[in-house]
């Protein structure tokens, strides 16, 4: 990717207002995660039995939970977990699914059918159901959850990369590289891999909110982040039985998840228009 | 196509039990003599090589025997069958709700592409895909169940045809059916946009066919194929959503059975439910494949 195309991409992206709004959301969440220790008014784990379930006020803008912990501070710290878990899942999926897709598309033949059959098999078990069963089997916790979500959701990356490789393989410059006697490994890494990047970046951005939502769901169900970790899904679970008289405990973490997911979705949507015009619109 | 997929799926489900640790220890807890463990292991056939164990398990499963629950003294098959009905009571109406709103909405927004309505619907779609299901359920519960007090908060009131049953199903069905609407509206829209630029649409219009007939008969019939395909791909998500929705609303379906079994580490039940849902998904996709033949007479399976 040279300087010229890069500046064209940036120009086209910044013209998309929705994408810019998304970028602001994402930047805000990233900053929150980095600065949580500075901006959070309280310790997210500090209990205060004199202030149980206090409704939102000047001292506690998002109220307190059933152990007197400040909800705002917990929501702010939660951004760290959301981003780290989301990134962990997406990177694992990209590596696992990407490598398999690259191999399937480049080698072809039996290897290709074998890999794609594997994708079909994993695909036919609902991701969340399998991730839940797997995370539970491995004993729960954040790392287990990251692995469980990644292991059940790499298939899309494989399909994407394989499709890219298959269409690239037929192009003239690849034939030319073969003709001048370039070794296969060089062709794969110098000519094929860089050209699959556009769609992979788009898909990675769009997979981020999916991973964040899935991890929140698993934590909510009890096999992800364990108490007292201030993870958003777990925070919503904390307030679940209290919505009748303490609506704030569940409501704010949910809004935080939505803003984060929305930011990544807006950015991904904008990136798709710029980086990959052929890529089918998901929404 | 179907058989290798099912073999793969059963292998994954079978290995879940072994990933979860020693089933004997799960059964008896940590304080058990080594002798008893070995005895029980031989009794259950767990001392045999793994492929023999898989084969034995599979041949039982094929005969409909999913084994015994560790915690509840009952057959796993029975436990699941009791829960299938309530789950379908949520998933089928939710699917109907999604389709009934999304398809007309998609057609309408395809008729007015790139206008304000179109852009707003894109924005709404992105909003809904960013929404956590379980949070939506809790919010609905809070507003309609606790503030307005017009619908029950949780539990199943009875069969759908009774008033109490119907009322108790409204919030879970909305939780499960509302979020995918936006997505399907967009999908229907893009499928329609593609079809409406075809030559035969212009031909139909130039013959003087009424616009409604052009849109529904010439346009939508041909847009149906991609929509049905994506609907089929969506089915696994429906079950995933059901797991969460049933947990939020304490609905006695398969999803809640699964969550409870995972929590209690009752792995025969977990295996049974995952396998059942996977087979249901595979079968549903097969039905979608056959539906193609009716939608598009050009497709023939030999």
Layout: helices, strands, pairs:
The complex is a heterodimer of chains A (283) and B (302).
Chain A: H1 3-14, H2 17-39, H3 71-107, H4 109-123, H5 127-137, H6 142-152, H7 155-169, H8 172-179, H9 184-221, H10 232-239, H11 248-275
Chain B: H1 2-19, H2 23-28, H3 34-43, H4 50-62, H5 76-111, H6 116-129, H7 133-147, H8 163-177, H9 179-196, H10 199-206, H11 211-248, H12 254-264, H13 267-295
Helix pairs in contact in B: 1-13, 5-8, 5-9, 5-11, 5-13, 6-9, 7-8, 7-11, 9-11, 10-11, 11-12, 11-13, 12-13
Brief write-up:
By secondary structure, chain A is an all-alpha fold.
How does this structure look, described?
The complex is a heterodimer of chains A (283) and B (302). By secondary structure, chain A is mainly alpha-helical. In chain A, 73% of the residues lie in helices and 0% in strands. In chain A, helix 6 crosses helix 9 and helix 10 packs antiparallel against helix 11 (248-275). The longest helix of chain A has 38 residues, at 184-221. Chain A is elongated and about 80 Å long. Chain A starts with a helix and ends in an 8-residue tail after the last helix. Chain B has 302 residues and is an all-alpha fold. Chain B has 13 helices and no strands. Chain B has helices spanning 2-19, 23-28, 34-43, 50-62, 76-111, 116-129, 133-147, 163-177, 179-196, 199-206, 211-248, 254-264, 267-295. In chain B, helix 7 (133-147) runs antiparallel to helix 8 (163-177). The longest helix of chain B is centred in the C-terminal third of the chain and has 38 residues, at 211-248. Chain B is globular and about 85 Å long. The two termini of chain B are 14 Å apart. At the A-B interface, helix 4, helix 5, helix 9, helix 10 and helix 11 of A face helix 1, helix 6, helix 7, helix 9 and helix 11 of B.
